[in-house]
Amino acid sequence: MQIGTEIAEGRMDLLIFFWDPLESQPHDPDVKALLRVAVLWNVPVAMSESSADLLLLGLAQGDYQRRVPDHSNYRANWARS
């Protein structure tokens, strides 16, 4: 929940989240919620060593600028429903 809050408040620009795919995860709903928030706010996510390497190498080039989506229309329409 705390990480999701950091993402939603614009204080996190990327997420590296390693987990063990060979074990069942008792916190699976929390993980899915975190990934949903990351996708909603267009935050790059790495869940393996290879994807983390690529993400960090891309950031090291210095030309990446994350585009934060504008969800105001969605929120306005949802409030009217």
Strand ordering within the main sheet: 1-2
For the record, the CATH class is Alpha Beta
How many runs of DSSP E, i.e. beta strands?
Answer: 2
Determine the CATH superfamily.
Methylglyoxal synthase-like domain
- Radius of gyration, rounded? 15 Å
What is the overall number of helices? 4
> Which whole number gives the mean pLDDT?
88
Poorly predicted spans: none
The helical percent reads 40-55%
CATH topology: Rossmann fold
Main beta sheet: 2 strands, parallel
Distance between the termini: 27 Å
Shape: flat
Number of domains in the coordinates? 1
Strand composition percent: under 5%
Q: Could you state the order of secondary-structure elements as H and E?
A: HEHEHH
SSE class:
mainly alpha
Could you say what the CATH architecture is?
A: 3-Layer(aba) Sandwich
